[in-house]
Amino acid sequence: xxxxxxxxxxxxxxxxxxxxxxxxxxxxxxxxxxxxxxxxxxxxxxxxxxxxxxxxxxxxxxxxxxxxxxxxxxxxxxxxxxxxxxxxxxxxxxxxxxxxxxxxxxxxxxxxxxxxxxxxxxxxxxxxxxxxxxxxxxxxxxxxxxxxxxxxxxxxxxxxxxxxxxxxxxxxxxxxxxxxxxxxxxxxxxxxxxxxxxxxxxxxxxxxxxxxxxxxxxxxxxxxxxxxxxxxxxxxxxxxxxxxxxxxxxxxxxxxxxxxxxxxxxxxxxxxxxxxxxxxxxxxxxxxxxxxxxxxxxxxxxxxxxxxxxxxxxxxxxxxxxxxxxxxxxxxxxxxxxxxxxxxxxxxxxx
Length: 351
Ligand SMILES: NC(=O)c1ccc[n+]([C@@H]2O[C@H](COP(=O)([O-])OP(=O)(O)OC[C@H]3O[C@@H](n4cnc5c(N)ncnc54)[C@H](OP(=O)(O)O)[C@@H]3O)[C@@H](O)[C@H]2O)c1
Prior knowledge:
Number of domains: 2
Strand order of the largest sheet: 6-3-2-1-7-8-9
Order of helices and strands: EHEEEEEHEHEHEHEHHHHEHEEEEH
Shape: globular
Largest sheet: 7 strands, mixed
Bound molecules: NADP nicotinamide-adenine-dinucleotide phosphate
């Protein structure tokens, strides 16, 4: 339905990283342009796309054709390419109130380059939405404080299981309830591999198939080793409990040592082996324990039917019972949709 009551608000965006997610975000913006205007009164204009060596920028809203040719970014001879230009400088020169869209790689040790991009956005009075996890895993409490100091929002649905609404549920739907435990299947690649192992493939075959289908990355170490899942349960726990746990607080065991026989015999018994992320309170209000490990779950577990690339999360609460959400597209498009959702929720009027 057309939003006739409010004029259209133009929001400048700077996108950092133009890989799978950055490109999917562009496609989604193009596809949803009219819908965004009609339903939310928003015109989202990408002012710049930052790469490590410079920015695509010409002073007007960018289209994919300004950035890539044949699907790949082109710089040499491209009038929109500004070597050496920094995202933070563009933000500084633009009025406050825009939004950074962080889609660079997730470095869980340094947080870079996302950390510098996000802090640069805050300094310029811009909001930030992130699909990358690195900056948040390394410094979420500090980033939240900086966002508050600058009166801007930091949202990161895209970094916490993409289209599966983990933070929306934990932060909004469970308002007033006390979270007493969290369990999640938060990584589509490992869930796909374990599902296929249950169906008869051995580990190497399942991994190979996932890579051939583009589900697993050529270097799947972060997924297989459980670190991607660890980053997500850490972020979800810290955000929902307003806590400050660090990655070193998460006990992590990946799926490389899981035997196909174990997965298949579990399946025959109606049970399932999942890479489960668990966040549980310590005794007498002590520190929570966070862990990621392959776990045998029985037929009554709320996540037992989460198969293939699907993900799921289950919150145990004091007053709302157990609340479980499953599904959500697990792909660059799903991550791009989560970024877009966060942007809409920053700018649309409260309801
Ligand atoms: N793919 C998914 O389904 C998915 C889902 C949810 C979240 N995520 C997260 O979203 C992020 C992006 O994922 P992706 O699949 O798009 O990864 P990707 O294809 O590897 O893209 C990352 C991009 O970041 C660029 N980059 C590296 N250093 C940079 C810098 N200093 N400044 C600007 N750009 C820089 C890379 O450029 P070069 O190639 O030139 O180095 C690359 O284009 C990751 O953090 C990932 O964990 C991904």
